[in-house]
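Purpose: get a first structural picture of the assembly so the mutagenesis plan has something to point at.
Setup: two entries, given in the order below. No constraints added.
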Amino acid sequence: MSDDKSITMTHHLGIDAGGTSTRAVVLDSHGRALGYGRSGSGNPISAGPVVAAASLRAATAQALDGAALAGSVISTTAVAMAGGSSVTDDLTVAASIRGALLPTGVTAAVTIEKDLLALYFSGTPEADGYALVAGTGAAAVRVRGGEVEAVCDGLGWLLGDDGSGFWIGREVARAVAADLDGRGPTTALTPMLLAARNPGLTTGRAPTSSSVVRHELSSERDLRLSELVRWVYALRPVQLAQYAPLAFEAARAGHDAVAEHIVNQAGHVLAATLAAVVSPGLDGPLVVGGSVLVNQAAVRDIVSDVGPARLDGPGDHRAHRRPVVVVPDGLVGAAVLSLRNAGIRVDKTVFDTVTRSLGQLR
Amino acid sequence: MSDDKSITMTHHLGIDAGGTSTRAVVLDSHGRALGYGRSGSGNPISAGPVVAAASLRAATAQALDGAALAGSVISTTAVAMAGGSSVTDDLTVAASIRGALLPTGVTAAVTIEKDLLALYFSGTPEADGYALVAGTGAAAVRVRGGEVEAVCDGLGWLLGDDGSGFWIGREVARAVAADLDGRGPTTALTPMLLAARNPGLTTGRAPTSSSVVRHELSSERDLRLSELVRWVYALRPVQLAQYAPLAFEAARAGHDAVAEHIVNQAGHVLAATLAAVVSPGLDGPLVVGGSVLVNQAAVRDIVSDVGPARLDGPGDHRAHRRPVVVVPDGLVGAAVLSLRNAGIRVDKTVFDTVTRSLGQLR
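Result (structure tokens, whole complex):
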């Protein structure tokens, strides 16, 4: 690596466009992060195309500002994004993102990259390995030769996302409903969920209703149950993900079998998702991300306890464990993919440069 | 009982207003059904107030026509309906139903009755007992002294309805997704569900998409999985209930552990819902209804195997089973409640008259 930028130095933009926030980084061709930007939701499906485009533009403008570079110097742009099921979809999205970035001066071609591939390359420069994410949703990928070879789950809240924040939050809400309803065991999750509810929707309801409720709803427990019903059905289902942390809190506090069971099950279903993409012949690191796996060592431990046994393959009885790398998001990987799109080989040296220099900027 | 109508004969209207169809019956004060009518959805929440009012009016007009009676002779009207959580709600709904029925000449006061109480009285005239329903939703009630004393579940698809048609249909869809995704076992439900899908949404998709799909979606299995995702998320979640019969079909055919597990679990969670309302001190029949319990002897058997053991109470080791009465809907009960609202005592003789005479009309 050299500081002489005069001969081969080019500049590259990596964007991690998430449902909650968007992150952008401008790098040189050695992998040095020169500028970083962050803005709101960049997912056109969840935030709408206008908001998503504005987020991408804002994060990019910040990153260029930080690098003190004009957008015109950018030669490749990679955008990591969930969704997109066909090449034609991606081409359409890429064209619209290119349009959205024009005010920043960036005119380079845009490639759309799978968010799980960017997550994977946020943890390792190795061409072969696995990634598992459990945030609001959940999915696993097998990466071979730097490309996604197999995907498991990521099927959304109704059909899949087993072990995701939504899955856990839904289990919490159902366990509380069953407790209040007399069908399920008593759990500490009940007072915790009722305390965590949006106070605006429930304050003063019980006194107002108590004079008119039917006699089968007259007990305190039934009042709380009918409040829970009103309140949960006023949410979009995926918003139940916000209550996932209650399960971890109650499980950590101990003595709550219901919460412990939910956390344990989440780990096991995530391990099953990972196991479904594992190929005995493909060795490599496991990169994990998403709030459930980043913040909850309990779930991560179950996955790494259960997962590697499968990762080693049926004929391999060595007790070694594959390294598990925890990453906060997919920004490093978006940067890696942007460099790769420029034909730059991202070896361990370049990868470490990206990781270290980006770490200093944010 | 006498055929002399001149002295005390009055006339009564019972309506069972369901989400799919509405049924009405006109009776005399001996419980003789004189006219029957049937129309579309009478539930203002699912069908909207205008459609629901029109359904109630149409079914009532048909029943009056069949009885060759003017609406003005009706002295009491009972409407069995899901929902309604407070007396004030019921008064509002009752007033609007009364307005809807005015064109039929019916001017009598309207009472709103819980659909589960009407279901219960469709199976028995006894004042104490239990009812369990599993249709699109699922719930149980304990009836004491002719009134609902306790309710369990009926909390809707997201929080409860364990063992309902939605619950079973969702398990079917998730099992098929897990099978196609390589996370779950192979099941006969997969070809069955794919064959049962709406052909209009999927015909010709695979050939059209095959030229542009990414390489990880290039296998036949992945194509079917992405079709399933598109198709299921285009439904309202409760519409998954339409696929519940596939679980029963596959379980009956044998050798499908996945389908057998779903059916078995449905029976057990319904038994738990029933157990939650059982009071050891309250004896009486168990009335069951809803498509899952009416059509699926397998589920009914699990409920009656598991349920009565709990029904007998902890101190009662006799092997006797409480009678299980299967009813097609809540119309007989709506009629019973309309008679009761007129002060008419509905004993076994009157009850049998209602059941027999209504059976001859429809």
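The longest helix of chain A spans residues 257-277.
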